[in-house]
Amino acid sequence: MSEMKLIPYRMDAILDSAKEIPRGVQMVEAQSLWEETDQGEGSVVAVIDTGCQLDHPDLAGRIVGGKNFTKDYDGDPELFDDNNGHGTHVAGTIAAIENEEGVVGVAPKSKLLILKVLDKEGSGTYEAIIDAIKYASEWRGQNNERVRIISMSLGGPEDTPAMEASIKEAIDKGISIVCAAGNEGDGREDTMEFAYPGAYNEVIQVGAIDEGRSLAEFTNTNDQIDLVAPGVNIISTYIEGKYARLSGTSMATPHVAGGLALIIPLVESQFQRSMSESEIFSQLIKRTTPLGHSKVAEGNGLMTLALTKKLEDLFTPYNIHQ
């Protein structure tokens, strides 16, 4: 069985400091849901990646646990610090805290379970990923919290039944699994490129757009794309307490994982019950805006978290005057 790897991504810049609400967070309209969801408080996202810089100032108090599934650090399961950079970047897009410094994530009060399955070089085994998915679905926090979202910005060419089975089991337990589409795109919407686990029908597969809402030239197009999110020149946390601008569908994926960390508490409080993964998926897709690209390129469109609120505001005057 071949190795699972980080989907190759582009390093645009490494910065010593930052002080901004990233453009991607603004494009998905995350702030529109911060007040009524308490910034995602109570949501736990498992980040299956290269680990995370545990003491990055922008991630203070976000990390609730983790495990190392690689041979790094002599295979010590307790050591899941990031020695690559990619996982820390993903983590920041989901949950960097709002404190007027550095950057801020889509769901700044959500919590992160850091599962290191990729080593310093960005490589790992399918077996490690399967084990990490199982670990995430069985994990319970001190107050019996559980993982509701898994973010996976990784991919490989092989469709492996064991990995698909582990994904289906997690989804049956009410976990939404968000995966990068891959960066093997050729800039044409009429040719299809597949990377796994993104191409599985059961996962939420995310393609990338740029700040102008155009498709990123590298984003994979295929008949299982569910939606798109910002993935070009994305600023987020990076190892050694720094920040970086990276491009890739790897960067689009955590925008959607963070979005779900806001949507799940919002809709479960509205419906006053726990909701299945398919119900949560339909609530996510209700919050997408078509951009005019083909469906195999953009799926349902750009995640737009304020959309349902805008529609309610639009129709409110009619209700008042009936």
Automatic annotation (TrEMBL):
Superkingdom to which the source organism belongs: Bacteria
Transmembrane regions listed in the UniProt entry: none
Molecular function GO labels: serine-type endopeptidase activity
Matches recorded under Pfam families: Peptidase_S8
Domain Peptidase S8/S53: 40-289
SUPFAM superfamilies: Subtilisin-like
Active-site residue list: 49, 86, 250
GO annotation, biological process: proteolysis
Keywords: Hydrolase, Protease, Serine protease
InterPro entries reported in the protein's UniProt record: Peptidase_S8/S53_dom (IPR000209), Peptidase_S8/S53_dom_sf (IPR036852), Peptidase_S8/S53_subtilisin (IPR051048), Peptidase_S8_Asp-AS (IPR023827), Peptidase_S8_His-AS (IPR022398), Peptidase_S8_Ser-AS (IPR023828), Peptidase_S8_subtilisin-rel (IPR015500), Subtilisin_Carlsberg-like (IPR034202)
UniProt entry tagged with the keyword Phosphoprotein: no
Family listed: Belongs to the peptidase S8 family.
Protein name (Swiss-Prot/TrEMBL): Major intracellular serine protease
Classification lineage: Bacteria, Bacillati, Bacillota, Bacilli, Bacillales
